[in-house]
Amino acid sequence: MLLRAYQTGKNIIRSIAASLLIGVIVGAIDAVFGRGLLAISDFRTEHFTYLIPFLPIAGLLIVWMYHHFSEISTKGMTLVLEMGQGKRKEIPMLLAPLVLVGTWITHLFGGSAGREGVAVQIGAVVSSQIEQRFHLCGDKKKMLITGMAAGFGGLFQTPLAAAFFAIEVITAGKMEYGALLNSMVAAYTASYTSHFLGLAKFAVPIQSALNMSQPCVLGPVIIFGVIFGLTGRFFAVLLKYAKEKMSRFFRNPYVRIGLVSIPLAIILTLLYQGRYSGLGTNLIAAAFEGQTIFAYDCLLKILLTILTLSIGFQGGEVTPLFSIGASLGVIVGKVFGLPPEVCAALGYAAVFGSATNTLIAPVLIGLEVFGTDNAVVLVLVCTVAYLVNGNRSIYTAQQLEW
């Protein structure tokens, strides 16, 4: 019995040590990636007119990189989820540099895309390689989830949300609690590391609070959940549909990205000179700083992000989802006469949760970014949005437990 207890304690210490190591490495990479992406975004905004015409060429370069170095890496998050489900034994190491460089190129030349997919994939690659080479944990799935949490936590510096996102996203309806401790250790370590290396955290403490005891508040809050849930569902369904149609209609990936990115570049230029390019952080800032938000901002950001990703450009979906939710929240808040910044915060979290088919992670990210004054409202809105979503997800490889 003593020997078994000793062995168990030894395994726990080894897995925690592995989580710390993963957190430091992934946090450092996240800092480089995140700060580089912000610098690229600023440069693109300043020189948008000169860069956007080269979007088709940038797309061709991205396709060439993937097909020349690691064609299977074009599957991106699907590879990560399949490994977590036991359908795949390993993830190609080249996935990390390819998705990092591909995302930088996408953002430099004006594509509408996110960044979280990059961080999660990098974290998964790093953790898988460490476990494969050093066998510190002995559980590939646990280390994969740990790396995913580190990637998300290091980039957004929301470690609680990152840990729960990693344990609930692989299989909808099933929480991988066995990996929670390692995920939290890695996520917090990555968050502290990236912050120490100069990557700033986005946070907006919301001072206004909705009083749920008032009848004029409860009804609109439930309606918000339905609207945000349908928006996330619409994004997930349309993204899957667009990817299938694009790959079927343009079987050659060079033709697909080279041809379709020409009208994409024109549209992005005509619509307010790149307002819908990049991450969408400009829309997020506008939502929380009282700047102009148009009623059609969320729809245009949805359509242009889906078009960008469906033809082969790289990046994630989550930050655009944040911007879609925040801008939509401002509009519905004004319609119901409720504080726009509170409604923007609710949309920020709930649309993300609906589109990723997760529940705990969006609640936690809302609390970590906006504070706890609207915690009850946040839980209610995210729950309704999750139920309305109906198990749709931007991650098509996500499994369903039921």
TrEMBL record:
<dbReference type="InterPro" id="IPR014743">
    <property type="entry name" value="Cl-channel_core"/>
</dbReference>
<feature type="transmembrane region" description="Helical">
    <location>
        <begin position="217"/>
        <end position="242"/>
    </location>
</feature>
<dbReference type="InterPro" id="IPR050368">
    <property type="entry name" value="ClC-type_chloride_channel"/>
</dbReference>
<feature type="transmembrane region" description="Helical">
    <location>
        <begin position="293"/>
        <end position="313"/>
    </location>
</feature>
<keyword id="KW-1133">Transmembrane helix</keyword>
<protein>
    <submittedName>
        <fullName>Chloride channel protein</fullName>
    </submittedName>
</protein>
<feature type="transmembrane region" description="Helical">
    <location>
        <begin position="179"/>
        <end position="197"/>
    </location>
</feature>
<dbReference type="Pfam" id="PF00654">
    <property type="entry name" value="Voltage_CLC"/>
</dbReference>
<feature type="transmembrane region" description="Helical">
    <location>
        <begin position="359"/>
        <end position="388"/>
    </location>
</feature>
<keyword id="KW-0812">Transmembrane</keyword>
<feature type="transmembrane region" description="Helical">
    <location>
        <begin position="12"/>
        <end position="38"/>
    </location>
</feature>
<feature type="transmembrane region" description="Helical">
    <location>
        <begin position="254"/>
        <end position="273"/>
    </location>
</feature>
<feature type="transmembrane region" description="Helical">
    <location>
        <begin position="143"/>
        <end position="167"/>
    </location>
</feature>
<feature type="transmembrane region" description="Helical">
    <location>
        <begin position="50"/>
        <end position="70"/>
    </location>
</feature>
<feature type="transmembrane region" description="Helical">
    <location>
        <begin position="91"/>
        <end position="110"/>
    </location>
</feature>
<dbReference type="InterPro" id="IPR001807">
    <property type="entry name" value="ClC"/>
</dbReference>
<keyword id="KW-0472">Membrane</keyword>
<feature type="transmembrane region" description="Helical">
    <location>
        <begin position="320"/>
        <end position="339"/>
    </location>
</feature>
